[in-house]
TrEMBL record:
The lineage of its organism: Bacteria, Pseudomonadati, Bacteroidota, Cytophagia, Cytophagales. Residues 250-259 have a biased composition (Low complexity). Keywords: Antiviral defense, RNA-binding. Residues 88-226 form the CRISPR associated protein Cas6 C-terminal domain. PANTHER family: CRISPR-ASSOCIATED ENDORIBONUCLEASE CAS6 1. InterPro entries: Cas_Cas6_C (IPR049435), CRISPR-assoc_prot_Cas6 (IPR010156), CRISPR-assoc_prot_Cas6_N_sf (IPR045747). GO terms for molecular function: hydrolase activity, acting on ester bonds; RNA binding. This is CRISPR associated protein Cas6 C-terminal domain-containing protein. One of its GO terms (biological process) is defense response to virus.
C-alpha cells in the first residue's frame, strides 16, 4: 500500500508532494482471514483511512486514487467507489487511543537489526522514544514557534497494561516484526498494536492524530483513533476543497475482489 500511494503521489506530477511525509494511512480494513498463503479478504467493501493536516495534499492524493479505476495489490483487486470525511473529534489533554496500524518506535539504519528490539510498553524508554520522534517531526514541520516547541515538554504514553497482560495470558501477540521499504532498502521493524493514554498538549494530540505516532508514519505505521469511538457515526460526505469543503481525515471505501476469495459479504 505504501509503494502504491507513493507511486500515485509521483504520478500526479506535483513535485512539492514528492517527499511530503506529513500524512498517515491505515491498512485495508475489511473481513479478513489469515491462511498459510497470506491474508484473504472476504468483504465486498474495504476501507482505507487517510489522514493529514494538509487539505491540498489530501485532495491531490484522492484525485490520483480515483483516476485509477482498477487497483491491484498482490492478488487483491479493488476499485475506488466513494470517500467520506470523519468529523473532527474534540481532543482532550489526555486521550485514550487505539492503534489502527502498528506503532513503530525505532528507525533502523542499513544493516542494523536494532529496529526489531522489543521494548516493554510499561517503561520510560517506550514513552521517551515516542516523545523524541514526535517532537523532532513537529520541529521539522516548521508549523510551530520556538516558544511553542519549548512548551511541549509534557508528554507521556501510558499503555493499557491490563489489555497487554490479557493478551499474554491468551498467548497472543501485541508486538510483531514488520517489513518496511525505504529508498528501495528493506528493513525489519517491530510494531506494537495496543491501546494507550497520551498525556500531552493539545497541539501535540492534534499532530499525532492527523500525522501518526512513531516512526514510518508516512508508510502506514502509527495510525491512531480514539478508543471507544465509532467512526461510522461521525462521517459526512466528502467534497474537495475547491467545492467549498475542508477535508482533513477521510475514510475511503472501495469495492474489493480477490483471486483468493471464495465468499463475499458486505462489510
Amino acid at each position: 500500500m505504501a509503494q502504491f500511494l507513493k507511486g500515485l503521489i509521483v504520478k500526479g506530477g506535483r513535485e512539492e508532494f514528492f517527499n511530503y511525509n506529513y500524512f498517515n494511512f491505515s491498512g485495508l480494513k475489511g473481513q479478513t482471514k489469515v491462511s498459510r498463503s497470506g491474508l484473504h479478504y472476504y468483504s465486498s467493501l474495504v476501507t482505507l483511512v487517510l489522514s493529514s493536516p494538509n487539505e491540498d495534499f489530501i485532495d491531490y492524493l484522492l484525485e490520483q486514487v480515483f483516476k485509477t479505476p482498477k487497483i491491484e495489490l498482490g492478488n487483491l483487486i479493488i476499485s475506488p467507489e466513494y470517500t467520506e470525511k470523519e468529523s473532527e473529534p474534540e481532543l482532550e489533554p489526555s486521550n485514550k487511543f487505539v492503534c489502527i496500524s502498528p506503532l513503530v518506535l525505532l528507525s533502523p539504519t542499513f544493516d542494523d537489526d536494532s529496529g526489531k528490539r522489543f521494548i516493554n510498553p510499561d517503561t520510560d524508554e517506550f514513552s521517551d522514544l515516542l516523545y523524541e520522534s514526535t517532537l523532532t517531526r513537529m520541529e521539522r514541520s516548521g508549523w510551530y514557534t520556538q516558544e511553542q516547541m519549548e512548551s511541549f515538554f509534557k508528554f507521556q504514553v501510558v499503555p493499557d497494561m491490563n489489555y497487554v497482560n490479557k493478551l499474554k495470558e491468551q498467548q497472543k501477540k501485541f508486538a510483531r516484526i514488520y517489513s518496511v521499504y525505504d529508498m528501495d532498502v528493506k528493513y525489519e521493524v517491530r510494531g506494537y498494536t495496543l491501546p494507550f493514554t497520551l498525556y500531552a498538549a493539545h497541539e501535540v494530540q492534534d499532530f499525532v492524530f492527523k500525522c501518526g505516532l512513531g516512526a514510518f508514519t508516512h508508510k502506514g505505521f502509527g495510525m491512531l483513533d480514539l478508543a471507544n469511538n465509532s467512526p461510522s457515526q461521525r462521517t459526512e460526505p466528502y467534497k474537495f476543497k475547491r467545492e467549498g469543503f475542508v477535508p482533513y481525515r477521510s475514510r475511503q471505501q472501495q469495492s474489493n475482489s480477490s483471486e483468493s476469495s471464495k465468499d463475499e459479504s458486505e462489510d
